[in-house]
Amino acid sequence: MKVAAYIDDQFNRFVSELQAWCRQPSVSGANRGIPEMVALVRETLIAAGLAVQVFTVPGGHPVVYAERKGTTDKTLLFYGHYDVQPPEPLEAWASGPFEAEVRDGRLFARGVADDKACLLSRVQAVEALLKTRGELPVSVKFLVEGEEEIGSSHLRPFVESHKELLAADWCIWEYAAKNELGYPTMTLGNKGLCYLQLTAAGPSQDWHSMFAPVIPNPAWRLVWALASLKNERDEILVEGFYHDVAPLSEAELAALARIPTDAEKLKASAGLDHLVQDVEGIELKKRLYAAPTCNICGFTAGHVHSGKKGIVPARATAHVDLRLVVNQQPADILDKVRRHLVAHGFGDIQVEMLEGMMPAKTAVNTPFVDVVVQAARRAYKNEITVLPTSPGAGPREVFSTWTDMPIVGLGVGHAGSGVHGPNENVILEDYREGIQHIAALIEQLGISSA
Amino acid sequence: MKVAAYIDDQFNRFVSELQAWCRQPSVSGANRGIPEMVALVRETLIAAGLAVQVFTVPGGHPVVYAERKGTTDKTLLFYGHYDVQPPEPLEAWASGPFEAEVRDGRLFARGVADDKACLLSRVQAVEALLKTRGELPVSVKFLVEGEEEIGSSHLRPFVESHKELLAADWCIWEYAAKNELGYPTMTLGNKGLCYLQLTAAGPSQDWHSMFAPVIPNPAWRLVWALASLKNERDEILVEGFYHDVAPLSEAELAALARIPTDAEKLKASAGLDHLVQDVEGIELKKRLYAAPTCNICGFTAGHVHSGKKGIVPARATAHVDLRLVVNQQPADILDKVRRHLVAHGFGDIQVEMLEGMMPAKTAVNTPFVDVVVQAARRAYKNEITVLPTSPGAGPREVFSTWTDMPIVGLGVGHAGSGVHGPNENVILEDYREGIQHIAALIEQLGISSA
């Protein structure tokens, strides 16, 4: 039996395995279900034919490592994570976030797209190759961490102390998604991240709002401070913020131009009648794939949901994520935000960086990229699209600082997967194609390495 | 036994009755405990010697009315409410909000200051007079509603359809507090209120913040819209907002000048190192007692308290209360806010008025005010302070539109009572003095009416 036929033959079982993974909560931020998820990942990897080691991480969640030697001396490394985002708000889910219900050809669960289905598709591709060929044409390694959703803070020390173990010629990164037109994508980079918590303090406890004429209100302070960071034309006003942004190369601009995109479909899937600054075409793509951002993820002051309450709240807190592009650095951006606030009279606002991540990217003109493209033609109807940088952040830079191996993000999500939101889902047909793509890629790498 | 001696003699029982009232939750906004509280108020009024009627209010909470004829044809009306604010945030209370714990000479409970202790002090004063004199020198009436904390929306129709029942010569209003220097106060007016909910809509559900470059963020929209309403110098920028503010009279300015106040004590009690615009002295008093406000009571977008979450939130909601002074009108202010937002490019922000209340005040030069001052000298060490207007809102205007009876707010709170906040409390010695003051006032009114 050919590997592609084996995958089709076993696909129902593969979906059942994915459901089992999704029914096991593994919320790293809430320290929920981690040991159970590690055990499940380990069993699955062993059953697929891999040798597994679980590394405990002092003060963190375990790293699962697995490998299988191939018949050539080339090695493909898979990076993924078994942890997921918190499922809240629960009331917004049509079925429970850990029920893994299948409806209309989709599997709904927290973390199914980001990235349990992506990771498992690779394990199942390896299983399919071993069951049908008996051996792998190149060696494969899996590095599976449990802290990607909380900043991967232990990944760098782990990688730096296991360079030999992790050495590889190419790397497939955790996640990618079909775009809103149904084209599969690969990402050659990640944005960086500077995730900040801004806090304003008011009276020592909530005060009756009759005192509002004289008691300083921390919600107002935070509103004014935030309004000083970015204006209504979406221009980030932090002094020097854009200073280190590297210009796009010709090859990147050409790749951006080739990305099929449709502002109308994006609007429809988000239920919106307009996008930021009404962007479309190449401007939309430059923003999404190449521009840094300053985004309010959350703002809490007082108690809006418990009804009317006439108070001056005791404190106000905002979470702001700034996604960075090469060569911006999170520590430098933090410093610039702090200096900006002081310069604008907001020295009372406390700023804390909850997560920092460097941006990183692989050049568009890399032979490995072509191999991924060719393999994709065997799995997908539509040509795969090359995204010079994912709009998302990720710890790719942890690898790019010690090795120049190309790193390509692939995955089985789609534009409506709702990652990090309620009703996160994967289309099962995308999942099948994703397994096929990885199996074809490993075969293709064997041919080009022989 | 003299009435003052009776009050001292019975004071421990009076405190026990107050605890029983406070242990009965009566959160109008959550529709919690209302029938039980109505029954408790009714029993207490009957036991004190009053004739009670409970009026059901279609679509609202019942009104409790009570009366007792006096020996002259003059009538004193007490207005109060049996409902309380929601107790959240529960974790901020040192003892349960409905435990009514006594610590260090204070009783801690949601609603004890605002205004169960105020209301009960009047009932107990009537009881004391009846037990010691056998009769009252003037008639008394009690109007006790259950919707003061949610906007008193049924009070106006009730009053307008029961004008004869409620007719009186003078009225004592629900609440007042000793100021931060320990001086008892009386309030001759209330600010009005225009309590708004502002909502901005974003994507149909929370989206991964990697899309922040193109997906409009409702938290940013709301931040920018709010920042357009008031600047950092605390100037309200809504066009025409100050247009209808009536200038203060000479008598009001003189009364403001006499108010003892201490910015340092206010700061210390709120745990602050500064007040808004560093006001002090007469400027502080003009703001607190005579200036309209625009205050953010709450702001919610995203999920700050469930950890880091990289999202563009689906919606952002703010509660803004504007406290109004004579002659500002809530419907007019709502209209001005809406027109301001549209004019500044924020026509996408939904504005809903959750509560509206007109400002109202009694003139400083009114004979009844002098009687209250004289009676206070028998109950308090310090001279009572006349506040031309309370900093708080209240439905006084419901009465002032059909009768010119003077309305004076009195009460047993203090500057650290924490009304509407956690650990709301009343100092028991203030409570005792409050009962003595009302008993003395009724006796004094009898003398001046005889």
Brief synopsis:
The structure is a homodimer of 450-residue chains. Chain A is 36% helix and 21% strand.
Note the main attributes of this structure.
about 450 residues, homodimer, alpha/beta, 2 domains, 13 helices, four-stranded antiparallel sheet, six-stranded mixed sheet, Alpha-Beta Plaits, Aminopeptidase
Break the fold down into its secondary structure elements and pairings.
The structure is a homodimer of 450-residue chains.
Chain A: H1 3-23, H2 34-48, E1 51-55, E2 63-68, E3 75-81, E4 101-103, E5 106-108, H3 112-133, E6 139-145, H4 155-160, H5 163-166, E7 170-173, E8 177-178, E9 185-187, E10 189-190, E11 192-201, E12 207-208, H6 218-229, H7 250-258, H8 263-270, H9 281-290, E13 295-301, E14 311-312, E15 315-324, H10 330-343, E16 350-357, E17 360-361, H11 367-379, E18 385-387, H12 397-400, E19 407-409, E20 413-414, E21 425-427, H13 428-449
Helix pairs in contact in A: 1-3, 1-13, 2-3, 3-13, 11-13
Describe the structure.
The structure is a homodimer of 450-residue chains. Chain A is globular and about 80 Å long. In chain A, helix 1 crosses helix 13 and helix 3 (112-133) crosses helix 13 (428-449). Chain A folds into two domains: 3-190 and 360-449, 3-Layer(aba) Sandwich (Aminopeptidase), CATH 3.40.630; 202-245 and 292-357, Alpha-Beta Plaits, CATH 3.30.70.360. The first copy, chain A, is built from 13 helices and 21 strands. With 450 residues, chain A is an alpha/beta fold. A six-stranded mixed beta sheet of chain A has the order 1-2-6-3-7-19, with helices on one face. Chain A has a four-stranded antiparallel beta sheet with strand order 13-15-11-16. In chain A, strands 4-5-21 form a three-stranded antiparallel beta sheet. In chain A, a hairpin with a 2-residue loop joins strand 4 and strand 5. Chains A and B meet through strand 12, helix 6, helix 9, strand 13 and strand 14 of A and strand 12, helix 6, helix 9, strand 13 and strand 14 of B. Strand 13 of chain A pairs antiparallel with strand 13 of chain B.
